[in-house]
Design a protein that fits this description.
The structure is a homodimer. Chain A is an alpha+beta fold. The first copy, chain A, is built from ten helices and twelve strands. In chain A, the strands form three sheets. A six-stranded mixed sheet of chain A has the order 8-10-7-11-9-12. In chain A, strands 3-6-4-5 form a four-stranded mixed sheet. The first copy, chain A, has two domains: 144 residues, 2-Layer Sandwich (60s Ribosomal Protein L30, Chain: A); 157 residues, Phosphoribosyl-aminoimidazole Synthetase, Chain A, domain 2, CATH 3.90.650.10. Chain A is 32% helix and 22% strand. In chain A, strand 4, helix 3 and strand 5 form a beta-alpha-beta unit. At the A-B interface, strand 2, strand 3, helix 2, strand 4 and strand 5 of A face strand 2, strand 3, helix 2, strand 4 and strand 5 of B. Strand 3 of chain A pairs antiparallel with strand 2 of chain B, so a sheet runs across the interface.
């Protein structure tokens, strides 16, 4: 029996199968009108709303050989949640736009939805609406819009860092980039690999950790965003394109020189990163690995619990240095590669 | 000289060229944090926010031979604005997600943005953020999320119609479907055709009117949505998939039988529709033509200025009849065609 494809079921039948997957996510008292009408209505108790959108494209942002549809669904939501957190807001809802080749298997779409629902539940952000479109042969684009509320707090931009502020990170660094490196080198663990179970192999476990972070985006510290805002963070950013590149944006927007401490950064290379990649590549990933979706922020004084200080802001041009030197890291550009 | 493509310019350069196009749209006092940070922040004075998302896919939702990129940008925004209006809300902001083949010409993307900006200005809804992704060969997906505010009014769903309510339409019917019919038949006017200028040919003008509506979605009556809410509308819907199909959704959600008056509907066939397509096809388009993005609503008593009464709600099963008969109109399904 050939598997059912999107073109084999009506849109209404597909929605009937998708909605229950989001069921555990739609019970929020803040959702005033949920999926199924022209538009959703969500409470905005702070009198303002925080909004971001981020998409993943098959063959560009994920490879089917590496990532399961559940991985993809989890990752695209987590990326958006991180952007909401980086403003100091709490996620309150998600919109899902799926454009897919009609030959896509229905099971694939349902597994994607399961990953979206997992990440939605983790972040307490219900799926409030969406859109289905057919796309060209082989094409799948998953777009998420995330909505957030500041809970009466301040929005924290990228432009508020001042000379004398400390720079701190909440969450891991370099793991997603490390996982990508392993997958590119054919050393990674994909969704097709059998679970490790209780195999006692530290290297295999390290590879698994890094590749899971790359495939799914694990443990986005989204609660830390509003905590940082409340603790007086002067600037904050989601680490999506690599630590140095993203802090460069803070440095330029704020007009400060960000001076990072190589010793403090080395602490992020220990464990699975160094075990799987060696110390040198581990440090390269800490500085430039993308898609980590941890948070970086600047604080005038103390940093909240769980944040690690990695440097300071100084007077000077908008740039980032590590132990006084501009690090030789490249960036990522969506169109030119 | 070959035209520049997205892959030839950096993402930052592209954004530098795109942002000024949206410049006239970002001056709203309600935009607290605009494009360029992790997320945007928009005022939600009603303490809630209305949200919808709708995408257009190249080769599925438009054909390059028929529609210019400016047409596409205008249409995708207008579709979203209509959904916001259909809840009774005023549009307050737009997010734009573009996933495009890196070989797409830069001029194409800029012209798309110009269309988005035109529709954004018409609706007073600034572009507050977005996302750029690369996509596969030939693939372009334009996703919009629209945000709205109820201005203290009621959200109007699809489920509030009651027996005895009148059914009314604000805006045209069948024009977009008529334009599509003409284009499919090779009788349409595309963006490549020379402007008509002062040509005195009523048929050519009729064809132009219908095709423009199909290509761009003209004159979405978005102000009428909040007016209908204030006037006591019990149910409201954006007409995206055809009058009978969309009113069927209201009928089922509300548990009423919607009885339409063929004579009242015939009034919508006059002018360009009948001139270009003949009376019979004109009526077919009025009943089933998609993508019109006019509004339909039910009212307990009087209808506001500008709305045309086309029928009544009665006790009975959730269905739509015209002069007592279930009309033989088909629907539209995104995946199965």
């Amino acid at each position: 029996m050939t598997p059912a494809r999107l073109q084999d079921v009506s849109e209404e039948e597909l929605l009937r199968r998708l909605f229950p997957l989001f069921g555990g996510t739609t019970g929020s008292a803040e959702v005033l009108v949920g999926p199924g009408d022209d538009a959703a209505v969500v409470a905005a108790p702070s009198g303002s709303v925080v909004l971001t959108t981020d998409s993943m494209v098959r063959g560009r942002d994920w490879h089917d050989d590496w990532s399961s549809p559940t991985d993809v669904g989890h990752k695209v939501v987590a990326q958006n949640i991180a952007d909401i957190a980086a403003m100091g807001a709490v996620p309150t809802g998600l919109l899902v736009a799926l454009a897919a080749d009609p030959a896509t298997e229905v099971e694939w779409a349902l597994a994607l939805a399961e990953g979206i629902a997992q990440a939605a539940r983790e972040a307490g952000a219900p799926v409030i609406g969406g859109d289905l479109s057919s796309a060209g042969e082989g094409s799948i684009v998953v777009g998420i819009t995330a909505v957030g509320d500041l809970r009466g707090g301040r929005a924290v931009g990228r432009d508020g860092a001042g000379a004398g502020d400390v720079v701190a990170v909440r969450g891991s660094l370099g793991r997603s980039g490390g996982g990508l490196q392993l997958l590119l080198a054919g050393r990674g663990r994909t969704h097709r690999d059998a679970p490790l179970g209780d195999v006692d192999d530290p290297l295999a476990r390290a590879v698994e950790v890094l590749c899971r972070v790359h495939r799914r985006t694990e443990d986005v510290p989204w609660r830390a965003g509003p905590e940082a805002s409340a603790a007086g963070a002067t600037a904050m950013i989601d680490l999506s394109d690599g630590l140095v590149r993203d802090l460069g944006r803070v440095a330029r927007a704020s007009g400060v020189r960000i001076e990072l401490d190589g010793g403090a950064l080395a602490a992020f290379t220990t464990g699975p990163l160094t075990l799987a990649l060696g110390a040198e590549e581990a440090m390269r990933q800490v500085l430039s690995g993308g898609e980590e979706h941890s948070l970086a922020a600047t604080f005038p004084h103390e940093v909240p619990d769980g944040w690690e200080v990695i440097g300071v802001c100084a007077e000077g041009p908008g740039e980032v240095v590590v132990d006084g030197e501009v690090p030789p890291v490249s960036g990522w550009d969506h169109f030119s590669g």
